[in-house]
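Need the bound structure for zinc ion, inputs here:
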Amino acid sequence: MAKSSMKPTCSGAECDNEAGTLQCPTCLKLGLEVSYFCSQECFKNNWADHKLLHKKNTGIYNPFPSYPFTGSLRPVYPLTPRRKVPDHIAKPDWYRDGIPKYPPNMRRLNKHEVLDQAGQQAMRTVCRLTREVLDIAAAAIRPGITTDYLDEIVHNACIERNAYPSPLNYNHFPKSLCTSPNEVICHGIPDQRVLLDGDILNLDVSLYFNGYHGDVNETYHVLSPTSRGPSPSASLVVDTARECLSLAIAQVKPGTPLGEFGAIIEKHAKSKGCSVVKSYCGHGIHKLFHCPPDILHYERNKSVGVCKPGMTFTIEPMITLGLNGGRDRTWPDGWTAVSVDGALTAQFEHTLLVTEDGVEVLTAQPPDSPGGPLVLEDGASDF
Ligand SMILES: [Zn+2]
Ligand SMILES: [Zn+2]
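Answer from helper R.:
Posting the output first, comments after.
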């Protein structure tokens, strides 16, 4: 057959021009048959109609197209169906109706539970498993995968350990893991968004095992093997959040006022030109996933009480880049908290046990952990 001399025409509606070399980048990214346009102008004029093709061909869409997003990140739906938990795994009370039940007067009494030896041992076990699951998911982070894929990894790793992923259906949260990229402060919902080289990503993993909860999170740099490495701003916010947590943990010992951690954290964040998020806090954790005491991460806070041996709680500072007051907004999904100005944000969390003379970091990382150790500014590892 003779080679056709006919050149393809522009994909623009009612445009008979020859197609140029301009390809739609979204088609390329989504792996669709690529549309060619004769000019940037024609591409722009046809964008409203053309972008519907992306949705039609992939089924993915932004569920809140008219929401004034604070940064460039968008939700990428549909979410995958709710993952199943086998019958033999013990489930927390929110598994069926999505509502965690609390003992009466829990808040009013402001009682800070002190765990006996058996309770402390149960916390050691669940926190070790929680750390294992976080490290498995973190090792899978790379450009090109979706956050939903990480949720699947976490869900399966929990089930393999006969543990329940605590976030699943907690106040109706739809997934087993929180994934918070770039400007997302916390509670991001794993979806179909593909991770990009240079993103930062927080994974927050919580497990329920033998009646107790463990809770840990870390922020990672998403990098390809050929990447030039994290940007200076991504490094700054991630390192600052990591240091804030280390500095606060170094002061956990009997007698330390619970309000002191916020002062340590905010002072360090400010010294790095960063802000502390005020809407979310650390919490007591044991048989209850979230309970008193509240651990506030900012100065001059109203955290009441002091550290006592046997208490278990988290410290989990959320730090945003720049002096934006750490203010946040929540997407219409009711969960995803983002920085008010779209600035990068990072978080680190450990579950801690106050001991007779200091602290045991129940979710401590082994030396080969993907995120690396928590290191203080002077380079000394603090635990
Ligand atoms: Zn957490
Ligand atoms: Zn937590």
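Comments: The longest helix spans residues 117-139. The first strand starts at residue 22 and ends at 23.
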